[in-house]
Structure formats: structure tokens, C-alpha cells
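User: Modeling request: complex.
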Amino acid sequence: MNKLGRRKLKNFLALSISSLCAAAGLAILFIILYDVLKEGLKSFSIHLFISDPAPPNRGLSGGLKGAFLGQGLLTLAATVVGVPLGVLGGTFLAEYGRNSRFCRFLSRLCDMAVSIPSIVIGTFVYAILVLPLGGFNGWAGSTALAIIILPVVIRTTEEMMTMVPWTLREAAFALGAPYHKVITSIVWRASISGIFTGILLAIARIAGETAPLLFTSFNSNYFRLSFNEAVPSLTVSIYQYAASPYEEWISLAWAAALVVTILVLILNIIGRVLIKIRIGG
Amino acid sequence: MDSRDKTTDLLVVNNLNFYYGNNLALSDVSMPVKKNCITSLIGPSGCGKTTLLRCFNRMHDLYPKNRYEGQIVFDGHNILDKSQDLIKLRGRIGMVFQKPTPFPMSIFDNIAYGLRLNDISNKSVLADKVEKALKQAALWEEVKDRLKQNAAGLSGGQQQRLSIARTLAVDPEVILLDESTSALDPVSTQKIEDLLAELKYEVTIIAVTHNMQQAARISDFTALMYIGKLVEFDETETIFTKPANKMTEQYVTGRFG
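Assistant: Request completed. Predicted assembly structure:
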């Protein structure tokens, strides 16, 4: 009985400590969400989306219209470039390069690239696309984001396609299908929801990035829908407004942060739901 | 009763060796495959019967370092030739696997897959061929009202008959069966055996099976393999009643293997 009692005590201790840690982690998350929600809602209005930035302390209701648009376009451009490249690259690694040591090395390299600090990518792009072109520009910003999304999409695609059983490919080959048809009509079709989920999560990741934009497209108060100059960025605006001494701006930064948080949350939730549907079905 | 001529060689295997990397998996196999007959390949696990089967449609080419030596003559050509067009070959020699392999698409699209590969896109032609193949595979009655539904929703036995229908749809001359009924219940197995008995009048069938009774029931010729070698090839009746080889007799009577 004594032994059993000790085991029960140990079990109780392990359970309470791990529960406590889980609660602490979740509590921090909820405090952040609560704070963002509370502070963000104060200045949350339609002006945030439709007005241009206004100087502080003049009683004007300024907004971040350009920043929303700019951030959206930067993310879109990065997605348009990064996703097809990533899907095709991942397809190569999973199919044509599956037996090559070099390709396995490349795929390990992608794993490492996923965890490169994004500011490093920002400074890299600064060196190749900002300095030579003479100033901050949108091309550099979207390139930096595309570089971040690329290894994520490559690896997700590769993993999802590797999960498709080989017997399915063999069955298609046995009907006389050429390899490209096997890939496009069988393997992609069988893994599309997984790849799509990975892409969504990757987009969610770059949509909230600040560091890679600081050195590349930076920020601007005006948006002329041109990528040849600095492009307004929501995340960089939050950074600048939050660091300013003006209460109006700080409050606006909270509101913008709320919107970014919610957007990223929605993308993530859609991604998770898709994963659930895929596993369930 | 049996109107078939069982004397024409459709395929001839001559001194075939096959290597997985450096491992010799088939050693000096020679046997004919008679046209419009069912040939069973039997033998204990690991004897090379599936390896031999997969030589007929060059499935081994999908993996690196596999190597053939010798000949499989089909229509006057050695299909093991490097210059052999594998897409054409696999169009003429179809294969059904051990486990059902429904493609992630509708029942109709599954059957039409091979037809579309051959650039058949006319809707009524496709519909006719799909219906014919499904009827041949004894699946039509069960699925005719849900052709647009995903094939993954079918039962295991239905999925296997779907795989057979998909293979039949492209009108192959030879069908390779790799233990195609081993994962099925007796009712589905019966349906597929009945189907094979019909099909042999139109196509040539090579079947790998672990089930000795099945080999005896369905096949005209039987080959016994053991450790990569062909032990004996003869008419099924001879193999099961008066085999020439002692090992064959032991194997078919269940005293070894």
C-alpha cells in the first residue's frame, strides 16, 4: 500500500505541475489577447481602414488605409511568387529527386532556412535590392517575404506528397500514365488539402512580419500603388506608432495590432479546420 | 466447351535474371505465357513470384538500381530492352494490385483515367467505355447511380473491382494480378474469380496467388517458384495431380512452404 501511495502522490505531483505550466502558458496568451482586444477596441473605427494617417493632437481622426493596402499587396506579391516556386520545388524534392542524396540535403537545408531569423533575410535583401536600387522599395519588401515563405511551402509540399502511398502512384503508372500526369492528376490531388493548409499557415506567418520589411520596403505615409518606392506597412506602422509619444498614435497602433491579430488568427483557424477535415475524412 | 486455343505463346520469358541492386532475386527463369489463358504463379513468400510479375510491365523501373538480364519476348520484341516505350507497354499489359487503389476522384473519373490518357475525350464514348468496363467487372449495378461520387466511399471489394474495371477500360492484352483477392472476403473473391473466368476469352491473365485452391480453380497453367527460381511450369492439372518435381508435389499437398 505504501508503494501504491507513493505512486499516487507522484502521479498527482506530475499532473499538477504540468497542468500549472499549461495554465501559465495559456494565461499569458489570453492576457495578450485580452489586452489587445481592450486597448484595440478604443480606437477601432471605420477610419482605421479608410483614412490616411493624420498628425497627432489636431483632433483629426487618422487611419492606416495605405498601410493595410500596402501590407496586403506585399503579402500578395510574396505569395504569388513564393507559392508556385515552393510547390514546384517541393514537388521536385518529393518526386524526381526522391532518391538523390543531394535533394535530401536540400530538404534539410530548407528546414534550416525556415528558422533563419527574418531580420537576417531583411538585411540580405537590403544588400541586393535596396542599396543597388537606391532606396526602400516594395519589390525588396515582397522579395524578403517571398524568401521567408519559400522554404515553408517547399517542405510542406514535399511532406504532404511523400505521405501519398506509392501504391497509388504505381497504379497510375500501371495504366500507362507518364510521370508528370501521375504527379498532377494523382499525387497533387491526393495531397492538395494538406498543401493548401500549409500555404495558408505560411501566409499567416508572413502577413504579420515586421523585421524583414524594416530594411526593405520600410514604411510610408502615402501610397501611390507603386512598388518602386517605400510601401506603407501595417506592422512597421504599429512599431512606429507604438514607439511614438502621442496617445492617439499609440491607441491607433493597438487598433491595428488587433486587426493583424484577428486576421492571423482567422488564417490559422481555417488552416487547423482544414487539417481536421482532412484527417477526419 | 472451351473454345480457346491454348497453344499460342503470347509472352515468352527467356533466361530472365533480375537484381535488386546487387541481390539476385530471379535466377534463370524461362517459361511461356499462353494466349487467352490464366497462368498462376505460386510459391512461398519471398520466392520471387511478385518480382517476376512486376517484370512484365517493367514496374521495377520506378526504383533505382534494379536491373534485368535476359528476355521477355512480347509480340516479337524483347520488352526488357532499354528502348522499350514503357507507357505503351503498360497500356497493353495492365496490372491490378494486392490492395485496392482507388484514385482520389469520382468513380467515373477513376475508370476514365486510362482512357483520357489515351486522349479519348468524347463524352459519349467515355460514358460507353466506362459502363462496359464496370459491367465487365460486375460493379455496374452497384454504382450506376453514384458514378459522380468519390471512389473512396466504396467498400474494399467494390474498390478492388473498380481497380479491375479501370485496368479493363483501356483494353489491355494482358492483365497482371498481384494477389488481387487476398484482401477480400469470400463473396468478393467469388465475384472476381467468376469475372476472370469470363475474361480469359478476351485477355491473357497472369496471377500471383498464395491460395493454392484458387490457383487450381481458376488457372490453365501454373508455375511454382522457389528462392528466385522456377521449379516447375506445366498445365495446372498436371501440377496438382502428377507433378514431375518432388518439391512441387510437396508444396501443392501442403507438406512444405
